[in-house]
Amino acid sequence: MKVLMVASECTPFIKTGGLADVVGALPQALARAGIDCRTVLPAYPSLQPLVAKGKEVAGFSDLPGGAGRLVQVAAAGMTLLLLDAPQQFDRPGQPYTGQDGLDWPDNHLRFAALAQVAARIGLEGIGDWKPDIVHVHDWQAALAPVYLKQAGGAAPRSVLTVHNIAFQGRFGPHVVKELGLRSDWFHPDGFEYYGDVSFLKGGLMFADRITTVSPTYAREILTPEFGMGLDGVLRARADALSGILNGIDTEIWNPAEDKALKSRFDARSLGRKRDNRAQIAVRLGLDPDNTGPLFCVISRLTHQKGLDALAGAVPHIVARGGQLAVLGTGEPGLEKAFLEAADAHPHMVGVHIGFDEGLAHLLQGGSDAILIPSRFEPCGLTQLCALRYGTLPVVARTGGLADTVIDANAAAVAVKCATGFVFDDVSVAGLEAVIDRVCDRYADRPSWQAMQRSALRQPVGWEQSAEAYADLYRELGE
User: Fold this and answer.
1) Contact 106, 65 (CB under 8 A)
2) Where do the Starch synthase catalytic domain residues begin and end (predicted)?
3) 79, 372, 394, 457 — which has fewest CB within 10 A?
4) CA atoms of 322 and 348, how far apart (whole Å)
């Protein structure tokens, strides 16, 4: 079976969030499941060296926003099809925003071009390669199923994966003509959304199947609380919706071979985590002799992630003898709050504002617990990495966090299957309560180590999820 993957970012080439990690790992996992997969990406500046090495396989003179060409190249274990349209993608800044932090004003043209190219590959193929399935990710690629349906005839089947329904790709009604969309589909049963064009809604209405990144999130987005205004659309298409849990790349995230660690380890050598904790203390100015639990945060610092509540709970962590290491960037107010917490609690709280991949690995390798108090979380990958490193996740009961962490309740502890701590109340008081649970369990070292070993045994790779996607593709192909 042949599958065309379509996305706006992909690790290791371009990344702003977890979408990139999924798009980078899933095609390789699908290949091991017998799926022939190729991935369409925009040729951003970071991909231009690959464009120079690749082979032009198609040209387009009439894309939204101008001409472009498609360059095929093999890289990082994948076959990439790079949309080389320099006037749209070869520019400074992030994929969606300029150096001023504002959205590019032509984003509708840029990502409609990506979707159109995907649809044309689906309809016409590349040489003798023609996909059976076009699998698109998030709003940036979500018009591809619309263009496929507009073409009619023998189009391939389509799958849309929603990584975060909060991002919907909304633009004014004037773009209908610019994007080559059918004007008679600009209505509530098409891609119209409160007077605008919504790329994501278009995909939700016209894709043959819809997936999202965890079973719990698939249920949550059917409700007004989590559906971000699209819950009614999703309820109408509930029969086409399913949740398939994400995985992580277990070669990149492998404590036994991770070069970012001071000491590598596995389930039989958990004591080596202490060496990594000592290195964290050096990096972030923490007291190396502290005997309480070391909590870490590796996250965007945002309200969605519940980190405003965590900022209020920092004094309680310190009062219980714990330390906190924070790595992230985000809302200025939250950055300031954590920096002030570090000033108020020297050698107990360490903060690095920004992102550092090596430090992220070190924090996973040396911390005792990772705090993820998200108010909503479609899947989350950080807790999967933490399980892989025996760093126990402390998570809110939402989305993929609820699907991947087994709470340390009495029954789970008794049968030695607990892998972390799950709580419901994302508030300062709620966090203080779960921090107490963590600290009490940490004091029982045999019990804590049993939980670490359970975490290390939990499957977090792509094998099961890739098989689920392969089954979905085969079902569509029947």
Assistant:
1) yes
2) 2-235
3) 457
4) 7
Place of tokens 């939700």: 204
Q: What is the mean pLDDT of residues 274-295?
A: 98
Dump pLDDT digits (tens) for 181-211. 999 999 999 999 999 999 999 999 999 999 9
**Alpha helix (H) ranges present in 107-245?**
107-124, 138-141, 144-151, 175-178, 199-206, 215-220, 224-227, 231-236
Superfamily of domain 2-247+462-477 in the CATH hierarchy: Glycogen Phosphorylase B; (3.40.50.2000)
- Tens of pLDDT, residues 319-372: 999 999 999 999 999 999 999 999 999 999 999 999 899 999 999 999 999 999
Query: 124-137: b or e for each residue (b if 16 or more CB lie within 10 Å)?
Result: eebeeeebbbbbbb
Q: Taking the domains of the chain in order of start, what are their residue ranges?
A: 2-247+462-477, 270-457
Alpha-carbon span 22 to 15, nearest angstrom: 10
Q: Using CA atoms, how far apart are residues 399 and 401, in angstroms rounded to an integer?
A: 5
Phi, psi at 439, each rounded to 5°: -65, -40
| 259 labelled ligand-binding | no
CB 362 within 8 A of CB 262: yes
Position 478 pLDDT exceeds 80? no
Mean pLDDT on 31-52:
96
